[in-house]
Design brief:
The chain has 9 helices and 17 strands. By secondary structure, the protein is α/β, with parallel strands linked by helices. It has 3 domains: 63 residues, no CATH class; 219 residues, Alpha/Beta hydrolase fold, catalytic domain (Rossmann fold); 108 residues, no CATH class.
């Protein structure tokens, strides 16, 4: 076949695929985007979507609907692994309902184990002594990642790893993005505190059991984090500690809980009378825990957010609010932001630049967006939605409920 004829055939085939996708809610193009892993696959899938979608509104609708999830996926317990940027192998277990239905969006629960000072886990290890059998539930997907002495839950590599594992699960299964919770036991409970304070955007609620946030301030644990209670906005906690716990007795948490109360952070603090450093209380407490999870889905675009950051290269975002640049690394960057329709009212301290991430179900893009910072209007203009922005954020999160079609970047004068 002459080259010109072959090229015409290829272009016709591509046009037919785009037309089919446009008539079928993005069809296989969204599936290709969802499954893309390599840089080449990502570029190709994004270009195909851009070619097929008539506008940002159409593309948003396709991504909000998501791919047609396959029924031909592994159920029960299985193990996976991924390689981090530091070259470490991060193993994780996944427990999927035997009756998994791809038409149903499943809550996901991450379970963070204790004993992180152990050597690296090998393949085939049961991270829970009783094995995966006791974790099987028909109403949710359970993820059990591994932590060890080179990758404590509160290290940077785990801060990258857990969201990446969540994306791996989302590629395969129909996940309810607004019902992804994090439960931790002992060191895992401390890990849950870490994500609540430092990287909460993906999670609906945090349930730290027999852990202690003070560990995050201990240099012996490889870190000495500064903890800001403002960062717990809209991230409820269900805290359980034993009265007689030899490591973290409930009384050692009381000053922390007092601050939660003062800061009006939504939480439950359960003291297990006579309880030690164990979870023997869990069966009796389970009904209240399940009610707590059900009653606290994530709101990906709450009207009010705040964030305190001591760095701007990571741990600098809370859902639609992000610190881009600190005014002075010696001072904390503090943002408080309230959204009313198309107006954002922001209080900023020691912040040189920040971003607002906009969603078309929250913002009327036919009207100007106004941003007031510290009592002064710094932005009042129309905002154009961007397909590139939409695809970039969708690629980063695979979060159908937190899609972003525009960013407003605000630079502030030096104080």
């Amino acid at each position: 076949m002459p080259l010109g004829v072959r090229l015409a055939a290829v272009l016709l085939l591509a046009a037919s695929a785009s037309a089919f996708a446009a008539e079928n809610g993005g069809g296989s193009l969204v599936e290709d985007f969802w499954q893309a892993v390599s840089a080449a696959e990502m570029r190709a899938s994004e270009q195909a979507l851009l070619a097929a979608a008539d506008d940002v509104t159409t593309l948003y609708a396709w991504l909000k609907q998501g791919p047609a999830f396959s029924p031909d996926v592994e159920t029960g317990a299985w193990e996976g692994s991924r390689t981090g940027a530091d070259g470490l192998t991060f193993r994780y277990g996944v427990v999927v309902p035997e009756g998994y239905d791809p038409e149903f969006s499943y809550p996901v629960e991450f379970l963070l184990h204790g004993g992180v000072a152990r050597p690296e886990w090998g393949p085939g290890v049961e991270w829970w002594r009783s094995g995966y059998a006791n974790l099987q539930r028909e109403d949710r997907i359970i993820v059990v990642p591994a932590s060890w002495r080179e990758a404590f839950w509160w290290h940077d590599n785990q801060a990258d790893n857990l969201p990446a594992v969540l994306r791996e699960v989302k590629r395969l299964y129909n996940v309810d993005d607004n019902r992804v919770s994090m439960t931790g036991i002992s060191d895992g409970g401390t890990g849950a505190y870490f994500f609540a304070f430092k990287q909460p955007s993906e999670w609906a609620s945090f349930l730290p059991y027999i852990g202690h946030p003070g560990v995050l301030r201990n240099p012996a644990g490889g870190v000495n984090y500064r903890l800001f209670f403002e960062n717990l906005t809209a991230k409820p906690l269900y805290i359980v500690n034993g009265e007689l716990d030899r490591l973290y007795p409930a009384t050692s948490l009381q000053s922390f809980v007092d601050v939660l109360i003062e800061a009006r952070v939504e939480h439950v603090f359960r003291v297990i009378e006579g309880g030690g450093h164990n979870t023997r209380w869990l069966p009796e407490e389970t009904p209240a825990i399940e009610q707590f999870k059900t009653g606290h889905p994530r709101d990906p675009f709450p009207e009010f957010l705040q964030w305190v950051a001591d760095r701007d290269d990571r741990y600098n975002r809370n859902m639609w609010l992000r610190v881009d640049e600190m005014a002075n690394p010696e001072y904390l960057a503090v943002l408080k932001a309230k959204r009313e329709a198309n107006r954002f009212t922001v209080e900023a301290t020691a912040v040189a630049g920040f971003s607002l991430l906009l969603n078309p179900e929250e913002i009327d893009f036919s009207q100007p967006v106004v941003v007031d910072v510290n009592g002064e209007t710094v932005y009042d203009d129309m905002v154009e939605q961007s397909a590139d922005t939409l695809l970039r954020w969708a690629r980063e999160t695979l979060d159908r409920q937190a899609l972003v079609t525009a960013e407003i970047r605000i630079s502030l004068p030096a104080e």
